[in-house]
Amino acid sequence: MAKAAAKHRADSIEARQNRYGYAFIMPWLIGLFAFTLIPMAFSLMLSFCKWDIVTGLSTIEFIGTKNYTKIFADKKFYKALEVTFRFCLISIPFYQITSLLIAMLLNMRIKFMRTFRLIFFLPSIIPTIATSMIWAQILGKEGLINQGLKLLGIKGPAWLNTPKTALYGLILMGVWGIGNTMIIYLSGLQGVSEELYEAAEIDGANAFQRFFKITLPMISMTIFFNVVMAIIGSFQYFTQAFVMTEGGPLNSTLFYNLYLYVKAYKELKMGYASALAWIMFIIIMFFTMLTIKSSALWVYASSDDKI
Amino acid sequence: MTKAEKINPRKETTAGKIGRYLAMALLFGLSVVVLIPLVWTICMALKPDGEVYNGKFFPSVLVWNNFYKAVTSIDFFLYLGNTMKIVVPNVIGQVLSCAVVAYGFARFNFKGKRVWFLILLATMMIPGQVTMIPQFLLYREIGWINTYLPLTVPAFFATSGYNVFLLRSYMSGIPKDFDEAATIDGADPVRIFTTIMLPMCKPVLTAITVFTFMGTWNDFNGPLIYLYDANKYTLSLGLSFFKGLYTSQWNLLMAATVLVMLPILVIFFLAQDYIIDGISISSGTKG
Known about the structure:
The complex is a heterodimer. By secondary structure, chain A is mainly α. Chain A has two domains: about 1-45; about 65-300, MetI-like fold (Orthogonal Bundle). Chain A has helices at about 1-45, 65-70, 75-105, 115-120, 130-140, 145-150, 165-175, 180-190, 195-200, 205-220, 220-235, 240-245, 255-265, 270-300; strands spanning about 50, 60. In chain A, strands 1-2 form a two-stranded antiparallel ribbon. The two termini of chain A are about 50 Å apart. Chain B is built from 15 helices and no strands. Chain B has two domains: about 5-45; about 70-280, MetI-like (MetI-like fold, Orthogonal Bundle), CATH 1.10.3720.10. At the A-B interface, helix 1, helix 3, helix 4, helix 5 and helix 6 of A face helix 2, helix 4, helix 5, helix 6 and helix 11 of B.
């Protein structure tokens, strides 16, 4: 009798937990289906279809893998991939090394450390549109960069209007906004125990040895996180290219995401653009997985913080 | 005895001291480099029309009137109002819905909780481009294009997995004793949520408010896709539109740019610790 009552109570507690739990997460659950899962399914379907924007759902036409075969024969698609990968290959090492070096300087016991930290972080919170406006001008023919070069007797190009330099102009602009990455490195560095360095010093390790044998392995998780975020960010690079170069000149800054936007909203090829989006998703997943898998080789994880 | 030596009992070597001074000099130099673009922007914003292309860094006279001219020619206050029509619902929506959902994940043991939470984390990995097109077509079917609805309604459904994650961790750290005491006093979960949880989560809620404000204020892609009429534009869109119209008037463009980034800079200086901590936490290196 008492057992049955206890069981009944346990049941009702469980039911209560279920009821309240689901009631509270309901907004997210609805949003998950409405804004993520259903659109994803729809998007996958669209990528195998031809969709006329004017007539809409009633004239949707299944065309199999035609969108994909067309994409793989599309010169601009390869150009967009090339631009994005070139941006990755140059900007990622450049930004990671710069932000790590600044973070290391900031991690020394230095006066005004807070002020310095604020200054280096500041540009990264400036709205992208504002940054783009500022740099469109700095990189102009009479801009700040060329004025600096003039002092050295070099005549600089109109960076964003020259096919050879436009992408490098954008890469240079990006280094101004590495504050986020830098802060993450700084907090990673602050997690490295001081004792390790002291022990190494006693053993006679010099600064280089300390950096390569202690600092780098200890912050390898942080490097890993930043690199993954940087790859994803490169594939989503949009506003700067849209506002400053519109992908030009001669498609030299046609970033993948910009090409996707043009296909979807300028040419209104929704099926084609959906296929582009799925290819992008697969590429991002591939590189994220590759970084995660390879991390076993180079990321140091102490036994309590395995990924 | 300097302060640093008191903190660190280890006696500092001369080499260490020189290193520290070198680092400081280097940081100072780099700070100047980082700040130059901002100073240049402000100088450009204050230049008279004739000096825009004269190649000098500083203006000969400060033309404060440029700000007035920029505000009137760009329709600044219209765009500001439009931006706020998107920013305010987003802040309210994200803060409320994410707190409610995080409370569900933090305090109740419902069936499938683990799986749902993993899905929540996984959705943070999905690039927005994958869902962007179908969402657009969907909104188009129900006539939401060229309204603020696609840019505000989703915020009420805890669409930021990151916010939920942040809040849930914080709530899990609050001792359950509070809930139990309140339950004995006859409070139901809704009451516990509003009278205990929300007030105790104030620091995270502030951080989320700041992040959502900045994110929405800065958003360019969303308004670009959904808003067609120039009189519905946000500041970001308005500014890029303005760039197309007045390509040679860099002084006015820069004045407008300064005005667009000013609120963000003010918020940054007021809430710098929240922002910097939030970023550190996001990388999992802290907290």
